[in-house]
């Protein structure tokens, strides 16, 4: 509902360049406008469901466009939960997936779901919540739900599509290892954990843990005074400071 027809066409052409690679989109329907969730939206969904063969998926982009205002006396949690509850019941009763796109608030949060704009009522009502995030370590997709395993995966956006790289913690660990090795490779002398942390802009605790694991795996060489060198820098291993 936030994108014009020309924008949709451009996006489809980017995702599926060339007619040969394009899937059959004959059953894909677009709606430019819709009433609020409490003012006819569910009835409209039901009309659509009973008018098509084998309905599977509804995408609401974005939720805020159809989310009703809260009632007087309600907390934000109660308002958000009420806004989603009838929609959640409809999707469960009719086994049609409804994907609601929603924004996140600026600033970090200890719990990933705290990053959702609004209250926890939205994620509490939803069967599954997926949070797409980007930080200095890359792009991640966090998943939590009633019937799914909690997981955070690292993603890469390439040629118009999202590609799963692997588990986020493992990918970050690999990236951090590479950053440490890169600094050690160009160093003029063996480096202490503190110096490595400063050079890589990594938390000291992360550096200490990784150096211990990398040392056991033979990825780094420990010299005197608790310093480390790259295994290829034999000049520094032979002449530690």
UniProtKB/TrEMBL annotation:
It holds the Pfam family AAA_25. Gene3D superfamilies: P-loop containing nucleotide triphosphate hydrolases. This is AAA family ATPase.
């Amino acid at each position: 509902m936030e994108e014009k027809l020309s924008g949709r066409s451009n996006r489809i052409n980017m995702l599926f360049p060339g007619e040969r690679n394009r899937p059959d989109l004959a059953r894909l329907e677009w709606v430019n406008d819709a009433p609020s969730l409490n003012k006819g939206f569910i009835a409209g969904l039901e009309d659509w469901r009973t008018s098509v063969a084998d309905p599977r998926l509804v995408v609401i982009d974005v939720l805020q466009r159809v989310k009703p205002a809260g009632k007087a006396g309600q907390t934000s949690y109660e308002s958000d939960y009420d806004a989603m509850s009838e929609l959640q019941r409809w999707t469960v009763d009719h086994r049609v997936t409804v994907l609601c796109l929603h924004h996140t608030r600026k600033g970090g949060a200890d719990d990933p779901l705290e990053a959702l704009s609004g209250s926890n009522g939205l994620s509490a009502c939803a069967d599954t919540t997926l949070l797409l995030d980007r930080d200095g370590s890359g792009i991640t997709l966090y998943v939590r739900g009633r019937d799914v395993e909690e997981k955070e995966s690292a993603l890469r956006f390439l040629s118009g599509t999202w590609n799963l790289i692997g588990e986020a913690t493992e990918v970050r660990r690999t990236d951090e290892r590479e950053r440490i090795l890169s600094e050690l490779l160009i160093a003029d002398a063996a480096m202490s954990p503190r110096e490595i942390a400063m050079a890589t802009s990594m938390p000291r605790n992360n550096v200490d843990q990784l150096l211990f694991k990398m040392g056991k795996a033979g990825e780094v060489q420990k010299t005197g005074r608790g310093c480390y060198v790259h295994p290829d820098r034999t000049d520094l291993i032979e002449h530690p400071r």
